[in-house]
Amino acid sequence: MSSTFIAFRALVRKDIAMFLRDRRALLVNVLTPIVMAGFFGFLFAGPGSGGSPISRMKVGVADLDNSALTKAVFESLNEDASLDIQVLPEAEAQQLVRSGKLRAAIVFPAGFESAATGALVGMGKMPDVKLFYDPSQSMIRPMVAGLLSQHVMQRLSRPNFIGNSRPIPFNVDNIAVTTGPRYNSYAHSFAGMSIQFILFMGIDAGIALLLMRQDGMWRRLRAAPLSRAVLLGSRAVATTLIAMMILAVVYLVARLVFDVRIAGSVPGFAMVAGAFALLAATTGLMIAALGGSVGATRGVAMFSVLILVMLGGAWVPSFLFPEWLQHVTEFTPTRWAVDGLDGATWRGLPLQAAFLPTAILLGWSALFALIAVWRFDWEDG
Amino acid sequence: MHLIADRLQKKFGSINAVAGVSFAATPGKILGLLGPNGAGKSTTISMIAGLTTPDSGSVRIDGAALGTGAHPSKRHIGLVTQEIALVEELPARLNLEFFGGLYGLSGRSLAMRIAAVLELTSLADRAGDPPSEFSGGMRRRLNIACALLHEPKILLLDEPTVGVDPQSRNAIFETIEALAGQGRTVVYTTHYMEEVERLCDRIVIVDHGRVLADDTLSGLLASAPVANKLMLKYDLPPDAAALSEIKTLPGVSAVNLAGMELTVSATNLGAAAPRVLERLAARGFSCQELTSRRANLEDVFLALTGRTLRDT
Q1: Tell me, what's the ipTM?
Q2: Structural domains of chain B in order of their starting residue, each with its CATH number
Q3: Which residue among A19, A86, B64, B160 is the one 20 to 30 A from B176 at the CA level?
Q4: What is the pLDDT of residue A180?
Q5: Which of B70, B82, B102 lies closest to A221 in CB terms?
Q6: Are the C-beta atoms of residues B169 and B156 closer than 8 Å to each other?
């Protein structure tokens, strides 16, 4: 064997030995792709392929006709396994679609039954059925319109002994529900990606604290007459400010280049952004408090953030998740951050709509800060 | 300010890092904490600096107990850590501004202090450069400068010359001597005996977390059963009979032959050396090379522990 080959082999062996030596980092490197692949496979698996059952779409129905036909159609829609129907006044239904709580809402106009029955046999004008839909979920609109047509035709054809080949006797008036001038698909992308990369920045801040402990800087800082509150608090504030600066620049670019507007409340946007920035900072502190080696901590933290971001709907909208998972995501701060930023931007929601996401983000931040203070090892050793 | 460490103890798990260390440091003097790596020096410094809470024992500054966290007594202390704790990307001046800010310095007073410490550490002409462009010695000096900004009365230096060339080491020594000359209390830890011999007014030898000796250099040399050394090299090593005779000579305390080199320990080297050379020459052993040295702290440490500092 040549000496070059022996040296080459020694170098390769060393790298592999080092990789295998850090068990936690190794586990994360293997686990991350498995969990991600498993999650997306589960999410997009069709029924019968062992995947998740289709999530029932929440759809509101406002019945201004109150006729036998509309009641029958309502019953029929209600029996559909893919729909979760709620009867609501028109204004409330529209508001719930705007806030993202309903996927769509159908409004049967007064006189729908007589007009539709007439139109079916070629007499009179076709009635207009309003279909409010969430423009961020554009694929929902044709699905709901299709199901509506199917159920109306089923109910209409029975008493009239008419085949299903007749044209649909009503128009669907598709109305995208948003306060903003128009839906901008970049708005959701910017919310999701901002959240993901600001959380990564929070991880870096935590790792930097671990490195400070290793290189003696932390020891030097602790030698000064400064309290724990000052030492950790200053770090949290600095990271929060950096996160807010990043958000400000990202959204400025989004506004200038991609026309992403804050169609709702600007103070509401600022509140959610500030609360999320604090969350990123306290995440970093918690990582520094719980972390061991830099390599392993970075791996575990990245894994955790990716899971949180994924569940928060930053990559794939959360309405595509199975219903049980949608409920689970309500316990993740990222879901509230994404929803809060979406609400203030393209959904155009008022200030009040930012209160709940802000409060939840602040609650998570407080929890992370408490864990950080509780678990932080202050002693040299 | 007087600094007293009184029966300090600290355990990490089952390891007894410091097991009852006591000493007193006085203003204007340099106290050396000498011991091998792992002797407990850095843990002791951590406790004196208020970074680590002792399991038992106390640290007192002019009679008052030292606190931790934001305790005002910590303001009297300047700590030079063994690691170079600098922000590598920031110029030296901004590093100094940062560390001065930690002690509440700002504005004109901070600017004056920065100028003073840059002058003291001979870094004034490099104030605009980042430490990443400095030599090892310059980085060490900046590390010291950062600890001096708030004019501490007590200066703790934890192995401040690690990785420094001899010229920079001398510059650091001169700085430390100047600081002691200004009336500061200096505690200096090292595992280099030459450094404490050169610098320290009082020397505390520690090993395995315990104080083995605490005295001046001359006191340590006088109290320990150590002797000066005469090293003789021969082409033909002296035989057993010659060695036996040398051992019996007045003033000779020990004889050791290693290969071609004979080491003779003697309390009075001036009197013993001629006799040794004469007796060996008479037996036909002609010395090729002769060196001598006085007893040093290495010998004291050897006498106290049975090991050399370099062995540990």
Answers
A1: 0.81
A2: 3-222 (3.40.50.300), 227-294 (3.30.70.100)
A3: B64
A4: 58
A5: B102
A6: no
Q: What phi, psi does A192 have (nearest 5°)? A: -60, -50
pTM of structure: 0.75
Most confident of A190-199, A323-332, B290-299: A190-199
Domains and their CATH numbers in chain A: 57-176 (3.40.1710.10), 185-375 (no CATH)
Instruction: State the nearest Cα–Cα gap between A289 and chain B, in angstroms.
Output: 17
Tell me: the pLDDT tens digits for B186-217?
Answer: 999 998 888 999 999 999 999 999 999 999 99
Q: Do A223 and B70 touch (CB under 8 A)?
A: no
C-alpha B53/C-alpha B51 separation (Å) is 7
Q: Which residue of B has its CA nearest to A218?
A: B85
Cβ within 8 Å of A, B 15-54: 43, 46, 49-53
Q: Give long-range contacts, CB 8 A cutoff, 24+ apart: B114-122.
A: B114/B149, B117/B145, B117/B146, B117/B148, B117/B149, B118/B92, B118/B93, B118/B145, B120/B145, B120/B148, B120/B175, B120/B178, B120/B179, B121/B145, B121/B175, B122/B171
> Token pair for residue A360?
């939840």
Q: Is the model's pLDDT at A245 over the cut of 50?
A: yes
